[in-house]
Amino acid sequence: AGRTGMGEVGESFLLCKHQDAQKVGELLSSAMDLCSSQLAGTGLECLIISAVDLGVVCTANTVLAMCQCSLLAVQAGRLGVDLPEAVTAALDRLVKIGALTRSGDKLELSKIGKAAVKANIDMEMAKQLYSDLQTAQLSLVLLSHLHLLFLVTPYTMLDQVRFQQQIFCNVYMGLGQKEAQTAIVLGVGEQCISQLMVGRTIKGKLNQIVHRFYLSLILFDLWNGNSLWSVSKKYMLPRGLVHNLVVSASAFSSSVVRFCE
């Protein structure tokens, strides 16, 4: 194979088994997968926040100039994105949700914006985390580790671990007095459990709290020394998924600490 500096012309050879030759030929002659920009949407907002924090950009014009050097700018026509309009919309939204502040033409990060960058989370999650931490300040239950585990239970795992109503109710009924107090403080009281036991669906914000508390109970069982195998069997989950939950919770707990700092 030719290498830069050794020569201008080179050849590459791929060695494969005879029975794989046809498959290799099909692979080499097939169409290439498209590489599409993921900046459109929240990705653009995350880029802007990071760039402002690093001092790369400080005005709307410099933000647009930076975005014009991105893959999104190259693919804007194919993706149907009006880049100047998308940048303006992203800036307006970041100001509206309190991530950025405007002083004339100058853009600066707010406190929660800086916390989101330090924690490496997007603004939607940062707002939700901030709200949960403020609520916890009013009534943090330290009788056991369950409430603390709830605060570091990753939001991203809610879509990966399906909520099992019957299993949740069974585990809830077996909670000790200290753990039950945590559930009550979070809003998961007897009325909520009664609705779940008769097959009703919890709606609104409480639905997410119940689902997240369900994941916290999985982490709590592991925290108390139960094996991965027994916990996965108890909650009828693959061991790999339970392990992913633990890893995600560990990473998210570090993000929560950095966010609070």
TrEMBL record:
InterPro entries: Hel308_SKI2-like, HTH_61, POLQ-like_helical
Alphabetized Gene3D superfamilies for the sequence: 1.10.3380.20
Keywords: ATP-binding, Helicase, Hydrolase, Nucleotide-binding
Keyword flag Lipoprotein: no
Cited Pfam families: HTH_61, POLQ_helical
Catalytic activity: ATP + H2O = ADP + phosphate + H(+)
Domain DNA polymerase theta-like helix-turn-helix: 10-96
POLQ-like helical domain: residues covered: 128-261
Top-level division of the source organism's lineage: Eukaryota
GO MF terms held by the record: 3'-5' DNA helicase activity; ATP binding; hydrolase activity
PANTHER family assigned: DNA POLYMERASE THETA, PUTATIVE (AFU_ORTHOLOGUE AFUA_1G05260)-RELATED, HELICASE POLQ-LIKE
Protein name: Uncharacterized protein
